[in-house]
Design a protein that fits this description.
There is one protein chain. The chain is of the alpha/beta class. It has one domain: Diaminopimelate Epimerase, Chain A, domain 1, CATH 3.10.310.50. The chain has eight helices and four strands. The protein has a four-stranded mixed sheet with strand order 1-2-3-4.
Length: 232
């Protein structure tokens, strides 16, 4: 086999190997905004869009209670809150970016976005984010506190039901005009050692895993291909 043909085979093997890491629907594949159908289509399928448990991490009780609470918020304020759970977000993409992209995809215009809220939980990533329209009475600092303080700690412990319940309870109170109860008190200052990763540490860890996997693939595939070609 000519040297040029060997190079072509090697490149093809590398592309195929990398592509195996990016097969939609595989267990290791992560979602992106484009994977989701329009919101009206989901509403037709599910009969509601308040809770979309695509990650399959919520109990039926939590889901029913969340739907009832968010429906009540919509009735009182006109603000539509949508909770979406997913297993994993596309590697390397910040959860805030994913949430913003999906929010814009579901609500393309400023008028459509005005009274909408999208709350995202990525269960295996242990990440959360929120996007809101201009007409939603929610301070950005409180919105971030809800996702990064109220919800994140239980979610990082895989207690997704508690994280969602606590987050929706606090969000509902704020949206309906009640005083913000604030985040849960963490006794880290009293000498208790923190045994969970922050959102920033989680993002760094996910990125490091991707880099290591790609480096391993880029190293092993050429070696295997080289030895295989020299045996033929």
């Amino acid at each position: 086999m000519a040297f040029g043909q060997k190079i072509q085979v090697w490149l093809l093997a590398l592309v195929v190997s990398l592509g195996m890491l990016a097969v939609p629907g595989s267990a290791a594949w992560a979602v992106e905004a484009a994977d989701f159908p329009p919101l009206p289509e989901l509403a037709a399928q599910l009969g509601q869009t308040a809770v979309l448990d695509d990650g399959g991490v919520l109990s039926s009780t939590t889901e029913k209670e969340a739907i009832a609470r968010l429906t009540e918020v919509a009735t009182q304020t006109g603000t539509q809150v949508h909770l979406l759970t997913v297993k994993r977000i596309d590697f390397g993409q910040p959860v805030e970016e994913f949430t913003g992209e999906l929010f814009s995809q579901w609500f393309p215009t400023a008028a459509e976005q005005a009274n909408q809220v999208l709350l995202v939980v990525a269960s295996e990533d242990h990440r959360t984010a929120i996007a809101t329209g201009e007409g939603v009475a929610l301070d950005p600092a409180i919105a971030r506190s809800i996702t990064q303080e109220t919800m994140l700690l239980p979610i990082q412990k895989a207690n997704y039901n508690q994280g969602v319940k606590d987050g929706i309870d606090r969000l509902s109170l704020v949206l309906t005009g009640a005083p913000d109860p604030g985040p849960p008190v963490i006794a880290e200052e009293s000498g208790v050692t923190r045994n969970y990763a922050t959102a920033e540490e989680t993002d760094i860890g996910q990125s490091s895993i991707v880099v290591v996997v790609l480096l391993v693939v880029a190293t092993i595939i050429p070696m295997v291909t080289y030895y295989w070609l020299n045996r033929t």
